[in-house]
Amino acid sequence: HFLGAPSDHIQREGVYPAQTLAHSAEVAVALLNGQEASPVQEVTVETQSLALNHALRLGKEQRYVRGVFAGGTFCFEAQLICHEAGITG
To answer: What's this model's pTM, rounded to 2 decimal places?
Structure first.
């Protein structure tokens, strides 16, 4: 998983792009079992709408979305997902 890299930039024989760390695990298990890797999926309009809806419900004094992460990679992935959904700081 090349965190933050567009999937169209990851085109090489034997290399499979993944959208998230969880998707990376799904791809690895599929390939291990001789199955086809699931393709990268863009964030749907429905998911973007849901995320923005939650963001709009924050009070004016609420400026941050906080989370507890077990490392910087998970934090960065969450930031990328929010950015892709249109939630930026």
So the answer is: 0.62
C-alpha 39, offset from chain centre: 13
Which residue in this structure is represented by tokens 């001789």? 34
- Nearest Cα to 89, choosing from 52, 64, 53? 64
SS3 40: coil
Neighbours of 26 (CB within 10 A): 14
Task: Note the pLDDT tens digit of each residue in 3-56.
Answer: 878 777 877 888 888 888 888 898 999 999 999 888 877 777 787 788 788 878
Q: What is the C-alpha to C-alpha distance for residues 62 and 13, in angstroms, rounded to an integer? A: 46
